[in-house]
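Fig. S4 source data, part A: sequence.
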Amino acid sequence: MSVAVGPAAKTFKMEESYAAINQLYQERGWTDGLPIVPPTADAVAAVLGYTDRSPREVVAVLPPRQGEATIERLAINTVMAGAKPEYFPVIVAAIEALADPAFNLDSIQATTHPVAPILIVNGPIARELGINSGYNAFGQGFRANVTIGRAVRLILMNLGGGLPGTGDRATQGSPAKIAYCVAENEEANPWEPLHVEAGFPMETSTVTVNGCEGPHNIQDHYSYTGLGVLKVIAGSMGQAGSNNLLGAGTPLLSLGPEHAATIARDGYSKQQVKEFLFEHARYPLRLLGEEYRHYLVERRKIAGADDTLVPIVKKPEDILIIVAGGAGKHSCWQPTFGDQTRPARRVISRKDGTPLARVRDLVP
């Protein structure tokens, strides 16, 4: 191993072993705790082959360090994460979305809350790259999901300065801070997928980011009606201790295909699901301690009566819904950072903004 490149694009020569290079990167705080793939000049060049943008182009300035995320620096961290070069357009689109002011990356990076950006990939490119949307969609075993998510985390650490205990002040953190990337299971979705709901054509590929906690399981093996399933989901989402209870926001409901099919079979549209959850995913104010109740009443400007039921969103449209996973009567929901962050979305595109039909079209 003769040449290694630092995560901020400083080149230095090394005649060291793989273990020695990893030790150096660990000592300098350039890793997420896992071994990295040494970002050699050749490896970085292979990643840059999957973009038509200049290596020096600044994609975003990432807080709290205000590091310049150039195309080259993004490529370096992509190699370090073990991602294939063809994953790079998804990673670039994700960083562009995270830099959207609506997402409020500065607060997401620095808070004590265990929030992490989830990447939701829609469209043909998700299938082209093999981003998992089925069994174990939020888990291990799929290189695209894990390494795309990990590349984004390394970028947020190495360029944005989200380092544990300094830039990142998460009290306990979350495994979602290592890698948090999923594709929507569009084939199993009985409604329109997330990007189509947002106004994009089915054939356009997008990355949506949302500041979420890790998945909270919703198990319902017993309900056989859509209403029954929705009642269990509402009971799961209307919980104390969630930032959504404090200030609303945009929580994510990730429906398993079986639950989605049961709900849709009984005539519920996606909008009607959102309306049901807005009305029923609430928490009784009387069950909270006096101090918490007082703060909640002051912050949310709600009635302080014992029969008050506190909603987790301000309006039905604030609930995001996707379908993900394989067979089995499980779903999950992901609380968010509250009303201090909003989802952001970017099209996976060429430099001129033209939507990319296939990643392989970038390669001559």
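Fig. S4 source data, part B ends here. The mean pLDDT is 94.
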